[in-house]
Design a protein that fits this description.
By secondary structure, this protein is an alpha+beta fold. It has one domain: 7,8-Dihydro-6-hydroxymethylpterin-pyrophosphokinase HPPK (Alpha-Beta Plaits). Helix content is about 25%, strand content about 30%. Strands 1, 2, 3, 4, 5 and 10 form a 6-stranded antiparallel sheet that branches. A two-stranded antiparallel ribbon has the order 6-7. The chain is globular, with a radius of gyration of 14 Å. It starts with a strand and ends with a strand. The mean pLDDT is about 95. This is 2-amino-4-hydroxy-6-hydroxymethyldihydropteridine pyrophosphokinase. Its EC number is 2.7.6.3.
Amino acid sequence: MALAYIALGSNLRDPMHEVGQAMTELDTLPETRLVKASSLYCTAPVGYDNQPDFINAVAAIDTGLEPMALLQAILDLENRHGRERPFPNAPRVLDLDLLLYEQVVMNTPALTLPHPRMHQRGFVLLPLAEIAPELHIAGYGSVADLAKQCADQGVVLLQEQST
């Protein structure tokens, strides 16, 4: 089994429900078990401002799926939730990003690991630091230190995880 981290986000329909439901569904992927889930955070949109705020979280999973198979599984999950991609950074019912997969480093047209922009994004780093502050992102440093640098990005804790 491999330890992987997935970012979850939504700003359409009922975003809190969409993120919560997707978190539950990650636990039902083949050969996969949800290990830990962050609290929910509210974040202003990045890249395209004319849209509602996002609800964000991060999940840690143990999986027997290889990185590309895991990517396909989470893309299928997005599609089942009605994900559309009309333009970059468009509003979305569900957005799932594979952030880290063990210590795997890869760069293909379909998948880059670690996620190439995660070290700059408070909406990823703050929930990730909540569940895995000791993680180290190669070339960038610890998740805890990176999260401190994003404290001014307007990411607001909404609902603490109860488990």
